Structures are given as C-alpha cells and as structure tokens.
Amino acid sequence: MDFDYIVIGSGSAGSPLTARLLDKGMKVLLIEAGKRERIPITRLPAALIHTVGNPRYDWCYKTEPDPTRNGLVEAWPRGKVPGGSSAINGMIFIRGAKQDYDAWEALGNPGWGWKDVLPYFRRMETADNDKDNGVRGGMGPQRVSALRWKHPVSETFLKSFVAAGATFNADMNGVSHEGVAWNQGSTKNGIRASAFDSFVLPKLKDARLRFIDDTVVERVTIKDGRATGVEALQSGNKVSFTARRGVVLCAGSINSPQLLMLSGIGDPVELKKHGITPLVDSPEVGKNLLEHPGLYALAEMKVPTANRMARPLRGALAFGEWLFRRRGVMSVPTAQLIAFIRSRPELEYTDLQFHLFPFGLAQTKTKLEVPKADLVTILMNINHSKSVGHLELRSKDPHEKVAIFARMLDHPDDVETLLGGIAWIRKICAQPPFSKDMIRFLDLPAEGSSREEEIAYLRRSTVPFFHPVGTCRMGPDDTAVVRPDLKVRGVEGLWVADASIMPRHISGNTNATAIMIGDKASDLIHA
Ligand SMILES: Cc1cc2nc3c(=O)[nH]c(=O)nc-3n(C[C@H](O)[C@H](O)[C@H](O)COP(=O)(O)OP(=O)(O)OC[C@H]3O[C@@H](n4cnc5c(N)ncnc54)[C@H](O)[C@@H]3O)c2cc1C
Description:
Structural class: alpha+beta
Bound molecules: flavin-adenine dinucleotide
Helix content: 10-25%
C-alpha cells in the first residue's frame, strides 16, 4: 500500500492523530516500537506495578546523575507498547488549567488558547459526568470515568483538605481545575482505556490503515528539504517506508527529539560530534526539558488502608472482584484525590498539585514492595517548575538511549515552592478528621526542623512525576523546534505532535493534553 502519512508512535498523541487522519480519508502507516499482546495485561488498571520498569512494556530510561539532587540517578519510565505511556500510566485524567493554554497562546502560538483547545478536549471524550454544561464531552472515543471504588481514608483526607482551606471541586475537568476533587480515570467499565484502545483498536480493520508493531524507526529520510519516509528495524530486519504527504513524529518527549537529531535536525556542533550530517540548524532540539518535581510523603495510619489489600487472600479476592465485576481496588487509578491549590493567596493561579494514594509502597534495593503497615501516600508537586533539563545523543546508533540531564532542583524558586508544599502537607494532616487517624509521617522532616534540614530533605527526596515535556518546543521564533502549526522548522512534510511540543508545562498530569495535541494536529496537518 502507498501511504499518505506515516505516524511514528501509537501513544497518547499518535493514536488520536491516526484515527482522525483515517476519518479524513487518508491512508496511514502507524509504526510502533512496542509489541502488541494477544491479551494485553495493561488493561488491568492495577497491572502498572508489573509493567512500569519492565522492558517488555517500558523503554526503561535512566537519567544521568543530577547534581541538583545529590547526584541521583533515577528511572524515567516511558511506555513501549501500543498506547505508549497511556498504556502504563496512572490513568489520572486531567486537562490542566485554562491559564496554561492561554499562556501558550501568549507565547506566540495562535490557535492554542483555552477557547481553541476546549473543543478538542470535548470531542475526544465520553465522560461519566457529562452534564452537557458546555465543557465536558459525551461522544468521543476516550472514556473518562468516575472512581468505581473509594477507600474510607480518602474521604477523611478530603475533609481535612477542605478544613485546611481548599474548596471542594465536583469536577476537576469542569469549569475550573482548582480545589480538591475526586479523581477521574482514563478507564472504561473498570478497564484501562489507553489511547490505542480508544482510538486505533476500533479502526484496525480499516483498509486504509496499516499498523505495524515491534518496529523501531531509526531515522526520517529527508530529500531536498522534504521528509519522504522512514528507515526502521522491524523484528531485526532493516526496512524502509515512504509517504506521499509526510511523516509525523509522535514518539514522545524523549524519542521524538532523538529521532530528529538522528535525521540531521539539531545543533550542528552536537550532530557533527556524532558523525551525523546536519541538515537543519535547530539548536533547541532536546533542550527545554520540563518536568513536575515533587515528593511522595508517606504517613502511617491507625486505621486500615489499601496496604491490606496486598495480602495474599485479600489480593486474590480483589482480583476476583475485578475479573467478575470490574469493580474494587483493582478497577481504579492509583490516585483517589487530586487537588490544585495556590500555596500563597496572592498567586494568579495554582502552583501546586496534590494526589492521594490510599496505600504506601517501599522501595527495596531491587523492587517496590507493599509494607504490612497501614500507609497512605501524599504526593505534592510543582505545576510550573523553573528548572530546565535537556537531552543529548550518546551516539548515532538509533538503539542507544539518549542521555537525560534532569537538573530538577536547579532553580532556587522551585525549592521555595516545594518548601511551601511541605507546609501545606503538614497543615492538611493536622486537621481532623485525618489528624485523628494518623500516627506519623515516615520520612518528612519533623515539624520545627530548620530550613537547611528541609532543603536537605528536598534534595534527597524530590523525584519526577513522569511528565517530561518541551523537548521539541513549539513557538513562533527562529530557535523553536516546531511552528505553531507543528511543522518542523526547516523541513517540508515533517511534523511533531506529542507532549514534546509543549512550550510551557501544564498544571496536571499530561495524558489528556497529549491526546488533545494529537487530535488537534490532525486538523493542522490535513485541513
Ligand atoms: C509511569 C507513568 C505514569 C504516568 N501517569 C500519568 C497519569 O496518571 N495521568 C496522566 O495524565 N499522565 C500520566 N503520565 C504521563 C502521560 O502518560 C504521558 O505524558 C503521555 O502518555 C505522553 O504521550 P506522548 O504521545 O507524548 O508519548 P507516548 O504516549 O509515550 O507515546 C510515544 C510512543 O512512541 C513509540 N516510539 C518511540 N520511539 C519510537 C520509534 N523510534 N519507533 C517507533 N515507535 C516509537 C513509543 O513506544 C510509544 O508508544 C504517566 C507516565 C508514566 C510513564
């Protein structure tokens, strides 16, 4: 078959893009590095404990030592499976704040303001709480569900959060994201709804679609300034494909910039160092790496938490409940509550996000374990960190992973914001009814600790929330990687459409936004 477009990566953005291009009558080749399973284990929401960190499903990136966090080297999971990271993620579905997109537009990206992206958020989803209120969607392929199971400890935490000063928000994807809310999941009837399952699976029999898995694209072929196709390794064999109208990179924030560099688009000095002939001088490819730095604060409770569900008999019962009724602890995302707050009232909008897990895990030398104690985890992270990292090629071998320089606590303002977040964790947990059920924090510095002690704690405990963005920054200027229409600057017939194009981070987890980017890209690429 000859193709109109080649889409690289069947993740959060690549899946809706493929589906929408097919709807426009285009012939599409969708190439995915990961392998499709006959019975995808990823559909069990609780399976992420098995898939994250497992090379069968995860690219398993490791960062370079981070000098801003005592030289920490850490895992950066990225989905390597149909559905990409949406197939191994925590299933939290959140759009972010209106102000995030208005800021993108204000940076010189017309068409990306809230009024422009809202129609895509609406058309992508079928939400349980579609109230026909002009904000939610009721007809889209992506199911968004209310929690089918709530732990009593989450109710208690919610009450204390409100007592600490936050407002209760009945729909965090509604009119405003601000306040504390029950989580919503990218799940359908208790099963994970990855972007691939939602958008591509229903179209697999479409004669205009060819989907190939287990195939790693090695570079985009560019002739006379135009992208003509790709070279790839398919189950160990070199193959190449061409497309009439062009190629779209949806390989995610780590792999899209890597593929651009391997194809000769990047900083010429860097490219030449690795023996790659520079075709386009694009110095920001791989730069502007933004994350959500944050903490996992564990609290020990006097009351039962979901840690008890991990005991063999309870675990078996919970699995049975999921298998036969699609309900219970295994049918829901890990986070029960989500909150966005302003750490200081004078702020224009929210700067901190919180999640509550009704359980706590312990990291041993080799694996994550569920301890016997009754634990909960309070996650707190910065929405718009000022610290910026970057990626570098290690070599021109497409199968060698890039080097990730996270530098997550580089900017002093981020340390201040996180200190404010620690104060908020203490404030929430000091309010009844949660305070009455809590015994102690496991690792948070004791109240009254010095500023130096708290900063030392931050430097050893701050981690990424697995939301890297920005490495193929969109913008109107001469060093942006893609234009506001997602065209790669300097090449015809080549686009990037995934989380890497975000010019500034969003408030919240990034899956819904990546889906929006893929969906919107279809209209930008093929009107
Ligand atoms: C463990 C984890 C938990 C998370 N939890 C949440 C959450 O609860 N809620 C939320 O909103 N967000 C969450 N995120 C983030 C969110 O899932 C991602 O931001 C989003 O999925 C990114 O979408 P993407 O399209 O940019 O990339 P991806 O979805 O990662 O898709 C990229 C795809 O391209 C493929 N690919 C890459 N290189 C090549 C190549 N050379 N050839 C062929 N194919 C290639 C990959 O295999 C992958 O399928 C989480 C992420 C992780 C890793």
